[in-house]
Design a protein that fits this description.
Elements: H1 3-18, H2 27-54, H3 61-79, H4 102-116, H5 124-151, H6 156-181, H7 192-213, H8 222-237
Helix pairs in contact: 1-5, 1-6, 2-5, 2-7, 2-8, 3-4, 3-7, 4-6, 5-6
Length: 239
């Protein structure tokens, strides 16, 4: 069990979320961070995760990738795309008071839980790259989440509480996966390759959506294109 990994996952969310209280991060810079993380995640899927699950020999493994892809679409009915850095705050009954986004928190927690599951069961070469990709993905999510919570007119203490809850979800997913792999939770480790494939489908949806949404009028500007190449290149170098 890698306790350092859990600590890194937790602190990366806490630090990036808390930074919103002190640093004004522009929408443009947030999109660049998303572009980098999206390209990195996509490259990790192509270079590491997809080959790893197909080499397992599990029959019809591609079906589970599709399940994960479309499951993420369903989750976004609740999260409203906060995984892509989108920030939506709704008025409660038409008044200025904002409603706390419980549905968004639940959907985002499910997404983050599943996202953490491959970490405890990937090969050594894949693990560090995947961990980096998840951290890079969670940084803009934490920023968007904290911004949304503050705009919901709740106190800073309450916002930080929910940020801490969110920061615990990905490590919880990783620990649950570890427990499954060690047969601590029943004898369902034989299904891990299928679980991994579902997570890959989620990653593919998230990363491709980020990349498409990084364009303006379906055209990439030079800076975004360079950032995307850097994200993919970083994944290649980490092999």
């Amino acid at each position: 069990m890698n306790f350092l990994m859990y600590i890194i996952l937790f602190l990366s969310v806490i630090i990036s979320g808390i930074s919103v209280l002190f640093i004004n991060i522009s929408s443009r810079n947030l999109k660049l961070i998303l572009s980098f993380s999206g390209a990195f995640l996509f490259a990790i899927c192509v270079l590491h995760l997809i080959p790893e699950i197909y080499i397992s020999g599990t029959p019809n493994i591609g079906i589970y990738i599709l399940i994960g892809f479309f499951a993420q679409i369903l989750l976004e009915f609740f999260t409203e795309g906060i995984e892509h850095g989108h920030i939506h705050v709704h008025n409660h009954n038409g008044h200025n008071h904002q409603a706390f986004p419980y549905a968004m928190m639940i959907g985002l927690s499910i997404h983050s839980f599943l996202e953490g599951m491959p970490l405890s069961n990937t090969g050594t070469d894949t693990h560090n790259s995947l961990l980096t990709g998840i951290i890079m993905h969670n940084i803009p999510i934490a920023m968007a989440l904290m911004t949304m919570l503050l705009q919901s007119h709740i106190s800073k203490k309450t916002a930080i509480f929910w940020l801490i809850v969110f920061a615990l979800i990905t490590p919880l997913g990783s620990f649950t996966s570890y427990a499954i792999g060690e047969n601590m939770i029943g004898n369902i480790s034989i299904y891990f390759d299928r679980i991994m494939a579902v997570v890959v489908g989620i990653f593919l949806h998230i990363s491709t959506t980020i990349l498409f949404e990084s364009s303006e009028n379906h055209r990439f500007n030079l800076i975004k294109f360079i950032v995307i190449l850097m994200g993919a290149g970083f994944a290649i170098v980490s092999m």
